[in-house]
Fold this protein.
Amino acid sequence: MNKKPKKLCLLAILGVIPPMILVFGIFPAVSLADNDAIDVVQERMLVMKSVDAAAKRIAEMMLGRDAYERQTLAAAARTVASHGGSRLIQQYPEGSLESPSKASPKIWADWDRFESLAQDLVLFGEGLAQSVERHAGPDTQPLHATARPDYTARRLNTGSLSKQPPKLVYLRLLRTCMTCHTKFRVKE
Ligand code: HEC
């Protein structure tokens, strides 16, 4: 099966749908027609896949498998950031759990936590971009040797993150993905 054209088509959809959401303000918390409910699930799964693709580009460079290219890295980090925050939480109207969604009903039971993790994606994505721009090159030590980040993230901002080594901010970003999935995504 040739995958390329399909991917391009998905990217086109990703480019078109988010502005439509902004313009038409769809996804009200009240009743969603069945098709809309399925669309909302499909769309957010696609968006997560593009977040995942950007995260993989970042990982390859952070781990030294790809050449460390600061502009490419910062752009990928901003792609991740752009899908967090209010844009992410808008994709979760209450009770939208239609198949094939792996979202957990805990999202709506602990909405504040979900929202704050969505916000962390913006904070650490943008923080990583700025850290990469500020530091000349990759940290020379391997990832596991990087000082352990303290995860009391609430008082951090992009300014303070930009001064931290890229790998440290990268760990915070990864931790955000993992924390949200552990808590709010149902295991396969
Ligand atoms: C605020 C919570 C949250 C954060 C942060 C988050 N995710 Fe997710 N992610 C989810 C939820 C919820 C789902 C399941 C969505 C569904 O199936 O309806 C998901 C699904 C996924 C999927 C599966 C998509 C599919 O088609 O099944 C991938 C891959 C993924 N996330 C990658 C990432 C990566 C990489 C990051 C960090 C850069 C990240 N996510 C950050 C909540 C989050």
